[in-house]
Amino acid sequence: MAKKVILDLDTGIDDALAIFYCLGSPELELIGITGTYGNVQVAQGVRNALAILALCGRDDVPVFLGEPHALSKKSFEVMEISEFIHGKNGIGNVGIPDAERQPESMGAVDFIIESAHTYQKDLLYIPTGPQTNMATALRKDPSIKDRIGRMILMGGALTVPGNVQPWAEANINQDPEAANETFRSGLPATMIGLDVTLQTLLTYKETQVWRDLNTPQGAFVADMTDYYIKAYETTAPYLGGCGLHDPLAVGVAADPSLVKCLDINMKVDTEDPVRGRTIGNEMKLNNSDKTMNVAVEVDVPRFLDEFMARITRVAQGS
Ligand code: BDR
Ligand code: CA
């Protein structure tokens, strides 16, 4: 039976690819998208998620507005680097029509809590932005940590440097307190960080495959991803492609054998000079009960094959 999935997205370009990946995965049933801030403001991310679902003919998937800023802040400003990588509208400045519907009246936090109670261990929660929604849900109903099957998060860096600070990755850096609370909560979690996502790269060769489909979905995903590849030519020219961060988290949800993990209880530093660092929790180093693991190896060719097959299936539009 397909696992129930909540995607918690700051819908930028790789988040959008994560939606496509999820829609193209028979192992996963997308029961809802919860919006967070990060690559864009929360309202823009939710707008993008709704528009992408409409483009893919999936207006049946509900979308929920989440928390608009970090736990310790009163507002949120999009970072210049985020706008450079994802475009002003978050999806590479590619224009697609607004959906005809609005987000649900229930908020993201309540939807997460309700789903945890309804689906229990069948529920996979996949955040690919800051972890403010889950931290807020855990504060409201701590019992959900024992109910949800697993959180498979894109964020953090254990064995490699960060991407917004030498010690911090972007999603964790947006709200270190939130990530620290979810990491320490005991919620079973797999961290898909830069350790593995910067090994999974896409080039213009693959996006041309989607453009050649001659469908609105193929044109959208190709143009949007080309914007992202172009940005990577400036920010990380040594990689030779763009990092498939968020889709890899969905890939691991569909097929955990794509990565090898280190079992380790994690924490996030919240104090300077290493605020936002994801690292082993020294207080729980010797606990036999490891509630977290961190992906440290990825089967790159197999993931890229899966990625292309699944995105292309959705981009075909049939
Ligand atoms: C993460 O940061 C965001 O910009 C991306 O969408 C991804 O989730 C990579 O560090
Ligand atoms: Ca993201």
Report how far the terminal alpha carbons are from each other.
Answer: 23 Å
| Strand/helix succession | EHEHEHHEHEHHEHEHHEHEEEEH
Q: What spatial form do the alpha-carbon principal axes imply? A: globular
Number of separate helices:
12
Q: From the alpha-carbon coordinates, what is the Rg to the nearest angstrom? A: 18 Å
Task: Tell me the structural class.
Answer: alpha/beta
Spans where pLDDT lies below 50 across 5 or more residues = none
Bound molecules: beta-D-ribofuranose, calcium ion
Helical residue percent?
25-40%
Mean pLDDT: 98
Main beta-sheet annotation? 8 strands, mixed
How big a fraction of the residues is strand?
15-25%
Total DSSP E strands: 12
Spatially, the strands of the biggest sheet line up as 3-2-1-4-5-6-12-9
Please tell me about this protein's structure.
There is one protein chain. Helix content is 39%, strand content 17%. The chain is α/β, with parallel strands linked by helices. Helix 1 (13-23) packs across helix 10, helix 5 (132-140) packs across helix 7 (176-184) and helix 9 (204-211) packs antiparallel against helix 10. The mean pLDDT is 98. The structure holds beta-D-ribofuranose and calcium ion. The site of beta-D-ribofuranose (BDR) has 14 residues, from helix 1, helix 6 and helix 11.
Could you outline the blueprint of secondary structure elements for this entry?
Blueprint: E1 3-9, H1 13-23, E2 28-35, H2 42-55, E3 63-64, H3 80-86, H4 108-119, E4 123-127, H5 132-140, E5 150-154, H6 170-174, H7 176-184, E6 189-192, H8 194-197, E7 201-202, H9 204-211, H10 216-235, E8 242-243, H11 245-254, E9 259-263, E10 266-268, E11 278-280, E12 292-298, H12 300-315
Parallel strand pairs: 1-2, 1-4, 2-3, 4-5, 5-6, 6-12
Antiparallel strand pairs: 7-8, 9-12, 10-11
Bound molecules: beta-D-ribofuranose and calcium ion.
